[in-house]
Fold:
Amino acid sequence: MWPAIPMKKGVTIKSIERMFQGKFSSATHIQLLWKGKESFETIFHAIKEAKRFIYLQFYIFKNDETGRALSELLKEKSREGVKVYLLYDHFGSFGTPRSFWKEMSQAGVHIRASHPFKWTAPFHYVHRDHRKLIVIDSKKAFTGGLNIANEYSGLHLRRRSRGWRDTGIMVEGSIVKELFETFKKSWNTWRGERLVFRQEGEEPQTKKEKGRIPALSIFVYSRKGRKRMRNLLRHSIENAKATISLTTAYFIPSRRMIALLEDAVRRRVSVRLLVPGKSDVPAASYAGRAFFTRLLKSGIEIYTYRGEMLHAKTYVFDLHWSIVGSTNLDYQSLMYNDEGNIGILDVSFASKMIEIFEKDLKESLKIDLEQWHRRPLLEKLKEHFFALFKKRL
Structure:
């Protein structure tokens, strides 16, 4: 049995499992990754220490300095006898040349592309594998919003370009096996070679894990799975008792989500929303801003991040239930994409999440309703125009 969480709470392990239709696993160690350079140093170090296998799944894998550095490391590990498998999204990595993948393949890295474009079904290209995942030796796993590119790793500074503020998570414990199973299913979907979790020489886990933290794999890759994910978010919002802190790179709310957030405020729940001050997808940003007036009137606090390009997707409810991953609060993410997240039901972890959230707010501008009303007419016209296409942005 899981230990009781010592606080008044709106969600429980049972209620989450019932709503998501999935079972909690556990983590024995969790590390938040939210500083680009340090995050990638942690990832590269873990890959260098790999002894048996490395499984990677990414939406964007560029052939810039960061991508080439990781490519060279993976080729080196493959030559050492480590089994390396890489799954990349065809749309997200569209600009990466075939020669880049060919070189890795020739070095022994097994590579597959998800959701390739097909002339026989061009509209299926809207479905994208937005997940980011690394599983190493059945011991460690990484996920979150980080892609493989300079803007995430900190090397953008060499080009004097703008970096991205993102959040990832590294976990150890039984949850790693759950994450392997999600990779295995994706790999098999795109006709990759057969994978096994246990490798020769690996000892079975016979000892009870110590310091177990309830962790839930929230990886979805079907219409039914996306519905379960939306239900989980709805359940988390509906059952929040005190605070909701949302960070998302792309915010285009449905009518239902707006109503859920408004209802939360009426229950005297403090709702704070952090979005980019400047987005890499301006059309999506304008579409989301079309709803700011209504949200502000209801009492929701909205902040626009003024630091690096905000790309994080993190959600914290009542200082004990947290979700970190790739899911944005927009139609593309909630209706079409394959997404990957981890839910952590732990007060200590949630406290760290809120600490980072508060630091981000110090780099942000809080929107004042009266000033918002006075924004230029052209901005209002753009918002209403792009809101017409909100389900396709």
Notes: The chain has two domains: 28-197+207-213, 216-392. The chain is about 35% helix and 20% strand. The radius of gyration is 21 Å.
